[in-house]
Design brief:
2 copies of one chain form a homodimer. Chain A contains 21 helices and 22 strands. Chain A is 37% helix and 27% strand. Chain A folds into 4 domains: 1-116, Herpes Virus-1; 118-304 and 386-409, 2-Layer Sandwich (BirA Bifunctional Protein, domain 2); 317-382, Signal recognition particle alu RNA binding heterodimer, srp9/1 (2-Layer Sandwich); 430-527, Anticodon-binding domain (Rossmann fold). By secondary structure, the first copy, chain A, is an alpha+beta fold. In chain A, strand 4 and strand 5 form a beta hairpin. The two termini of chain A are 46 Å apart. In chain A, the strands form 7 sheets. Chain A has an 8-stranded mixed sheet, sandwiched between helices. Chain A binds chain B through residues 19, 27, 29, 96, 100-107, 112, 114, 145-146, 150, 152, 162, 470, 526, and chain B through 19, 26-27, 29, 96, 100-107, 112, 114, 145-146, 150, 152, 162, 470, 526.
Chain lengths: 534, 534
């Protein structure tokens, strides 16, 4: 992605993490916020912790990635944080840009970066997508693909990688109307919400319906809440445990200045509560940034059913003519520039003129207006079009993190059946994938070797496999000579939710029965609930 | 992807294109092979072309990207090729590496590149994938994703981009047995084959069944031919016109030295015959390269059902003991090194010893053997395991090129119905997508505005939309007040293969009938043939 795009979006200037370095060993560097979190976690483990300390450390930990450079420095001083292994002093926090740079083209003249998020590609195509939607709002655009961030410390398996899979939806809305027509279908869903006040005062999350959360102003608007519930439904559908999914609101300090509200779906696992999806109301920030940089109009023109009358300040007709004359060849441009100015700026010029003169910049040149030349009058104007930059609600999914969490949630060890069981008997693991997320949907098992070698089985299998392929159901075979029990058990370990066993009865059936099995399977896959895991 | 991986694969050293520069204007550079093709195409257009010239120019054009640096230089001299716009002289061809470099990590110590193909990731995971297939050959691994090549001259729409979507299958086989069990299912498919002899002698492609092509040795083996047919079937399934799909064999000079055979699926369109899929038998090159670089054993160990006896040259027991003593602390290493040498190298050492001494390099040190010290004997050895590096058959799909070609093949302009038709009547385009490739599978149309506003329609639509979503069928609505004919026509232009019209009869039906429609739709999508385009 080219420099100009990521300059406009703010990534070139602001997509940074704070780093600290060991002053005696440059090869030891740390992400300042992660180091601070670790230090606070350590302090919270102390046996003689007072309640005041618990609240203080928890609050600092929760804000770790929201501090400014200056604040981080002060906090590192306050808690005397040193380089973890060596105990040496640390440098002051400094910024490190997380994008991977690369030159584009054989001349190497064009600076590019690997995209740090999929979102920017959607903003670039906003105007085209709006056209595809017959110029109607609201509409959403979704993309899934790789994003790249030059993480200072990749860690924790799939949870912090330099190359990761991201899925983002940019949902463009009228900023004055963020109601969602389908919100009524999801408003009774109960969510676990951890709002920012609760985090700052070290309280617990609360359970509440989406409808109440919007009603009480906890979640900013219906569209944001709609996507929070849809995210929740998706996470449960693929098999995550609902007791271990919660939504955490960003702290006011953590949120970008332009954002209205932002919630993370957090999933609990080996690394604690892990941020896996971010659902943000980014207001009109991105489209405005690109419109400014590319000098193109991305405003949405809404035809008003009933025109509105409003009082405006405008040049008098005579003054318009005077200006055209006064500035000769530039006259028309200056007049049109003034006519298109927002009302606030015209008010400002009028004030300047009362005190003396006002300068306007048109196409790089400066023109001086006097109160004799530029005369404004207040008049009523009929407005038939309402122009605004659409707001954006953005659910952004970290697919690898969701997948890593899923593996933890669906795994359990099968308990030995009887207290008297053979001690040497292996404890078998089970991956209880929901059909929707299982890599293999079913395993085909001949009951034993007599079946596996039967001519009829081989014939049936040929036809049956073709049917499964047509249904798009991925499957595998286990024709080994292990007992059927052992094979069931090891395919549980592989996370295969369905097994189709061929026994002697099956061989007596004809292919039509098999075809029915096929329809039966199809139904199961459309209706299947995730299996109970524990 | 790290430097070491792409160094091992040969991309760092050899993933180059030849460039030429305008000697008076460094900002004008060209891909040498593409420029040569353009020049030959121009010459082929001459009115007074002799048959000898036609053969010569066609042959040069067909080999353009197969010439060496030296050959290219000579050819550019021979035809006096100049810089196209300026007419200036051109530099000699020089190599330009097509990978995008980027530093990895905050220290910037690790050199990385954007992957130039998806294949290498599969080779890195070969061992893991083999285990997942219960250590059985053959098996295939497929991947789809973005690849990046710093093209000298991106051009021609989607056909030559710096970032593109690639889908690759690496199919690992026993190099001594490239028969394919399912080949019998595809052997009668007739293919248009453009073999290398035909290209060099400026002849036409031939039509032939896959079975005959393998039988006559035109296609190297069954597995390669199987994937050629499957590629052909895929291309037709998504809606390409079979008259404009052919398979072109790589020229011996164009093919990598290790490759057995390679065929490109070429699709005809605005840019002529365009290479869209490459289906190559890459032999064991890639796995051997990575095994050498990573110093790990990627050989496949095949248990032989019946052990083979074969005569081998081996150190005598006494000589083994002597060597261990002679080289002291290095003795064991030297003995084991000699024992593991391939038979050809042992033969070689024996010959050297007959003439004097032989040196062996073990762990960076040199050891001198004499014929008194190293005594070999011929003995019979029972072999129960056959070890080899698997060969690789690689179908590699350029998704964007296929998609661009598809758009051209499915597009046609609908002829005006009557000779007397209104002259101003717009000629309507149609995108006759096959259901499998259509972005929207169906459009829902209320017959007119009376229906669109009927309460029963709105109720039915709510339920019906949910059903279509459950089926995973993408759809759109067209409820505008244009006539039904106009709406049919404009949705043809959008490439929507099915339309579901709601009329007054529909409103009398109940939801159960709609459910039947659903099943009907499902059937259609599983069985649909691509529509006839012309």
């Amino acid at each position: 992605m080219q420099h100009s795009v990521l300059k406009a979006s703010g990534h070139v200037d602001r997509f940074n993490d704070f780093m600290v370095k060991d002053v005696n060993d440059e090869s030891k560097f740390f992400r300042a916020d992660k180091l601070l979190e670790d230090v606070m976690d350590e302090k919270l483990k102390a046996a003689d912790l007072t309640e005041a300390q618990r609240v203080e450390y928890t609050s600092v930990r929760n804000q770790a990635d929201a501090y400014s450079q200056q604040e981080l420095h002060q906090i590192f001083q306050k808690y005397k944080i040193k380089s973890p292994e060596t105990g040496n002093d640390l440098s002051e926090p400094y910024e490190f840009n997380l994008m991977f740079p690369t030159p584009i083209g054989p001349g190497g003249y064009l600076q590019g970066y690997l995209r740090p998020e999929t979102a920017q590609g959607i903003f670039l195509n906003y105007k085209f997508c709006l056209e595809q939607n017959s110029n109607r709002l609201p509409f959403g655009v979704a993309q899934v693909g790789r994003s790249f961030r030059n993480e200072i410390a990749p860690r924790a398996g799939l949870t912090r990688q330099r190359e990761f899979t991201q899925a983002e939806i940019e949902y463009f809305v009228n900023p004055k109307n963020k109601a969602h027509p389908k919100f009524k279908m999801v408003k009774d869903t109960v969510l676990t919400l951890f709002h920012s006040d609760a985090q700052l005062s070290a309280q617990e999350p609360v359970k509440m319906t989406a409808g109440d959360a919007v009603g009480q102003g906890l979640i900013n608007n219906e569209t944001l809440a709609f996507f929070i519930v849809r995210t929740y439904q998706f996470l449960l559908h693929i098999g995550l445990d609902k007791e271990f999914v919660r939504f955490r609101q960003h702290l006011p300090t953590e949120m970008a200045h332009y954002a209205c509200d932002c919630w993370d779906a957090e999933i609990f696992g080996s690394y604690g509560w892990l941020e896996c999806v971010g659902i943000a109301d980014r207001s009109a920030f991105d489209l405005n940034a690109h419109a400014r940089a590319a000098k193109c109009d991305l405003q949405y023109k809404e035809s008003l059913e009933k025109p509105i009358e409003r009082e405006v300040l405008a040049l008098t007709k005579k003054s318009g003519v005077d200006i055209m004359k006064a500035f000769k060849k530039d006259g028309r441009a200056v007049k049109e520039f003034i006519e298109k100015l927002p009302q606030e700026e015209i008010e400002c010029i009028v004030k300047q003129l009362e005190a003396g003169t006002a300068d306007v910049q048109v196409d790089g040149s400066s023109f001086t207006l006097t109160k004799e030349l530029a005369v404004f009058e207040r008049k009523m104007e009929k407005q038939t079009v309402n122009a605004f930059t659409p707001g954006v609600i953005e659910p952004s999914f970290g697919i690898d993190r969701i997948f890593a969490s899923l593996l933890e949630h669906v795994y359990y060890a099968r308990p030995k059946e009887e207290p008297g069981d053979d001690k040497d008997k292996q404890t078998r693991g089970v991956l209880a994938f929901a059909p929707s997320s299982a890599p293999y949907k079913c395993v085909i098992l001949p009951l034993d070797q007599r079946i596996a070698r039967d001519e009829r089985y081989l014939t049936m299998m040929d036809a049956f496999q073709v049917q499964l392929v047509e249904l798009g159901l991925s499957f595998t075979l286990d024709e080994s000579n292990a007992t059927i029990g052992k094979r069931y058990s090891r395919n549980d370990e592989l996370g295969i939710p369905y097994a189709i066993t061929f026994d002697f009865d099956t061989l007596e059936k004809d292919l039509e029965d098999l075809a029915n099995t096929k329809v039966e399977l199809l139904k199961q896959f459309f209706q299947a609930e995730p299996p109970k895991t524990k």
